[in-house]
Design a protein that fits this description.
The complex is a heterodimer of chains A (112) and B (111). With 112 residues, chain A is an all-beta fold. Chain A contains no helices and eleven strands. The termini of chain A are far apart. Helices cover 0% and strands 56% of the residues of chain B. The chains are: A mainly beta (112), B mainly beta (111).
């Protein structure tokens, strides 16, 4: 079975632009979470979606938004990009909320 | 929020040596996971271990939830074990099923 997939793999954007990152969970998994990992740190929680509803939000500004689709895939949107948004963005899926999470390979975003 | 502290921050081992990585957390947790992050950034699941002991080949883990710590044991280390090891916990106080990560232990295994 395929694991969690994310697209694109790498992305370079300019300050002020908007970006959309995509995630497909493991087949049968209904919960998707997003994390941001800056260099030298552990991942930080951004959002969790379960059954297409937002179930949790981390300490990130309103420029960050996300949604989950009927097929349980998800996208993360970031508006008005700042240099500090440069990071590895990780998507994780789990069968239901509150059990073991499995991570995708990530999208490396560079903001110049 | 909950604090997750990992030690040591850096570890250099000769191939074949054993090591123990520690994760301390400041509150009661529902779940705990250990991950290995490879040089390309992929987080690989090692253990899902809210309590008790598990073993998988050369790796084993123990979580003592009442004392708020978990240990990851690596025996007969290999160069492919190099990378960053993260402990992550999910706790009730978060209000959602989010994982809170430690800063990781960077392991370098030299031939």
């Amino acid at each position: 079975d395929a694991g969690v997939t994310q697209s694109p793999t790498h992305l370079i954007k300019t300050r002020g632009q908007h970006v959309t990152l995509r995630c497909s969970p493991i087949s049968g998994h209904k919960s998707v979470s997003w994390y941001q990992q800056v260099l030298g740190q552990g991942p930080q929680f951004i959002f969790q979606y379960y059954e297409k509803e937002e179930r949790g939000r981390g300490n990130f500004p309103d420029r960050f938004s996300a949604r989950q689709f009927p097929n349980y895939s998800s996208e993360l949107n970031v508006n008005a990009l700042l240099l500090g948004d440069s990071a590895l963005y990780l998507c994780a899926s789990s069968l239901v909320a509150g059990v073991e999470q499995y991570f995708g390979p990530g999208t490396r975003l560079t903001v110049t | 929020g909950i604090q997750v502290e990992q030690s040591p921050p850096d570890l250099i081992l000769q191939e074949g040596a054993n090591s123990t990585l520690r994760c301390n957390f400041s509150d009661s947790v529902n779940n705990l996971q250990w991950f290995h992050q490879n040089p390309w950034g992929q987080l690989i699941n090692l253990f899902y271990i809210p309590s008790g002991t598990k073993q998988n080949g050369r790796l084993s883990a123990t979580t003592v939830a009442t004392e708020r710590y978990s240990l990851l044991y690596i025996s007969s280390s290999q160069t492919t074990d190099s990378g960053v090891y993260f402990c992550a916990v999910e706790y009730s106080g978060a209000g959602s099923y989010q994982l809170t990560f430690g800063k990781g232990t960077k392991l370098s295994v030299i031939p």
